[in-house]
Write a structure and sequence with these properties.
The strands form two sheets. The protein has a three-stranded antiparallel β-sheet, with no helix packed on it. A two-stranded antiparallel ribbon has the order 1-5. By secondary structure, it is of the alpha+beta class. The chain is elongated, with a radius of gyration of 13 Å. The longest helix has 16 residues. This is DUF1918 domain-containing protein.
């Protein structure tokens, strides 16, 4: 899902009232978002976020 307020892409993790908990595709801290501020993320943007995470993981110090 894309948060149309700030462009962040994440996975829906839960709902509380009228708010949705969203977690970044690559992992990290969840954020709350009004349900009406989410729209499906383009597949290429989700893939881009996943590739960034894999690249970051490959750069970890030994």
């Amino acid at each position: 899902m894309t948060n149309v307020r700030d462009g962040r892409i994440g996975e829906v993790r839960g709902h509380v009232g009228g708010r949705v908990q969203v977690r970044p595709v690559a992992g990290g801290r969840e954020w709350d978002c009004p349900a009406g501020s989410l729209e499906p993320a383009p597949p290429q943007e989700v893939l881009r976020a996943q590739v960034r995470q894999v690249n970051r993981a490959g750069r970890l110090p030994c």
